[in-house]
């Protein structure tokens, strides 16, 4: 149990040390890069799956039309 406490204390001090540094500019750039990467992944996913989803919904609509 002591090892778990030591690991948590070490992790906490490491995080606090990272947060106390004056790297606001670097952090803003990192967040900007992450947001850009996330946006690129979302756009690529929507573009790739958009046609497939449209086809799937068309099949569902066609299958449900005679029932209604």
Structural features, described:
With 68 residues, the chain is an all-alpha fold. The mean pLDDT is 80. The protein is elongated and about 65 Å long. It has helices spanning 2-20, 24-64. The chain contains two helices and no strands. The longest helix has 41 residues, at 24-64. 88% of the residues lie in helices and 0% in strands. The termini are far apart.
- What is the residue-averaged pLDDT? 80
Proportion of residues in β-strands: under 5%
Main sheet record = none
Low-confidence residue ranges: none
Rounded radius of gyration (Å): 24 Å
Secondary-structure class: mainly alpha
How helical, in percent, are the residues?
over 70%
The total count of helices amounts to 2
Taken from the alpha-carbon principal axes, the silhouette is: elongated
Distance between the termini: 64 Å
Total beta strand runs? 0
Strand/helix succession: HH
Quickly list its features.
0% strand, mainly alpha
Break the fold down into its secondary structure elements and pairings.
Layout: H1 2-20, H2 24-64
Summarize the structure.
With 68 residues, the protein is mainly α.
């Amino acid at each position: 149990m002591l090892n778990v406490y030591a690991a948590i204390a070490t992790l906490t001090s490491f995080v606090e040390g990272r947060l106390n540094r004056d790297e606001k500019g670097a952090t803003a750039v990192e967040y900007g890069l992450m947001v850009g990467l996330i946006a690129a992944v979302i756009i690529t996913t929507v573009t790739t799956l958009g046609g497939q989803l449209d086809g799937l919904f068309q099949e569902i609509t066609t299958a449900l039309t005679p029932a209604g």
